[in-house]
Write a structure and sequence with these properties.
Radius of gyration: 19 Å
Number of domains: 2
Bound molecules: octanoyl-coenzyme A
Strand order of the largest sheet: 1-2-3-5-7-10
CATH architecture of the largest domain: Alpha-Beta Complex
Number of strands: 10
Largest sheet: 6 strands, mixed
CATH class of the largest domain: Alpha Beta
Structural class: alpha/beta
Order of helices and strands: EEHEEHHEEHEEHHEHEHHHH
């Protein structure tokens, strides 16, 4: 697929997907969802890709939400399709067996906050602004904001953002657990890549199992969730990397992981 709305590059086992509609502050239209979906499938299928970074082009916005120009005249069935498409792609991203980091370089409003929350982590620049402003244009969040946001920051704070439609800055996002780390804008990509390289160096099957246990155990009872953890952990013992990791530890050397 030819990309017109995103940039896609791979270096050192790290895929970087850059939302690239700067004139619309990287707002998400249908074509951008299709391209993101295609790029994420490449990330899943290419064993050489070990970690994924999502960011926005320019220094003003990560993603300023859904493309309001595209959706302003949507009939309900079109709105439903547009929402379902976003959910499908974000769930794919969230459950991808490879780690993802949102490098949030400016506005992450509405769909922008929602995309960042489907990533495993959010590293953000000091100029980042998060919010769910849909209420200001007669909507509510439609790509996970009413669900992932309370899970990440708690019900009261989520309601404050969703019902009040306000924005929070990077520091506040960090304080309430929405942002993992905050960096000056000119250091954001370098620092994000540094951590992505760390993730990429980990034994891939263990990374996959850790994500699986956290993602799918979260909504289970503690009994079922801990059982899931046991099963995921036990599966790691079937890998060559587990044997190598423990052997290397005992031999006091760096492990040589092969991803199996
Ligand atoms: N959609 C389309 N175009 C946009 C969007 C957007 N979300 N955001 C910005 N743009 C465009 C502007 O129209 C403007 O275009 P032009 O230069 O042609 O006039 C250009 O980007 C620059 O924007 P501004 O001039 O407004 O820049 P400012 O620095 O003054 O303001 C803001 C930046 C604060 C980010 C402002 O642009 C803004 O408020 N944008 C909209 C933010 C928003 O409301 N996002 C939520 C959208 S709704 C959503 O995400 C719901 C998702 C799920 C529902 C799906 C339902 C079907």
């Amino acid at each position: 697929m030819e990309y017109k709305n995103i940039l896609f590059g791979v270096e050192d086992g790290i895929a970087t997907i850059t939302f690239n509609r700067p004139k619309a502050l990287n707002a998400m239209n249908s074509a951008t969802w299709d391209e993101l979906d295609d790029a994420l499938r490449k990330c899943r299928d290419d064993d050489g890709i070990k970690a994924i970074i999502l960011t926005g082009s320019g220094d003003k916005a990560f993603v300023a939400g859904a493309d309001i120009a595209e959706m302003q005249n949507h009939e309900p069935y079109m709105a439903l399709k547009f929402m379902e498409r976003g959910h499908e792609v974000l769930r794919f991203l969230e459950t991808l067996p490879k780690p993802s980091i949102a490098a949030v370089n400016g506005f992450a409003l509405g769909g922008g906050t929602e995309i960042s929350m489907a990533c495993d982590m959010r590293f953000v620049a000091e100029n980042a602004k998060f919010g769910q402003p849909e209420i200001l244009i007669g909507l509510i969040p439609g790509w996970g904001g009413t669900q992932r946001l309370p899970r990440l920051i708690g019900m009261g704070r989520a309601k404050e953002l969703v019902l009040g439609g306000g924005q929070i800055d990077a520091q506040r996002a960090y304080e309430i657990g929405l942002a993992n780390r905050v960096y000056p804008l000119d250091q954001l990509m370098e620092e994000t890549r540094k951590f992505a390289r760390r993730l990429a160096s980990m034994p891939a099957f263990a990374v996959k199992m850790a994500k699986h246990a956290i993602n799918f155990g979260y909504d289970l009872s503690l009994d079922n969730a801990t059982r899931l953890e046991v099963e995921c952990c036990a599966q790691c013992f079937s890998t060559r990397d587990q044997k190598e990791g423990m052997k290397a530890f005992l031999e006091k050397r760096k492990p040589n992981y092969i991803g199996r």
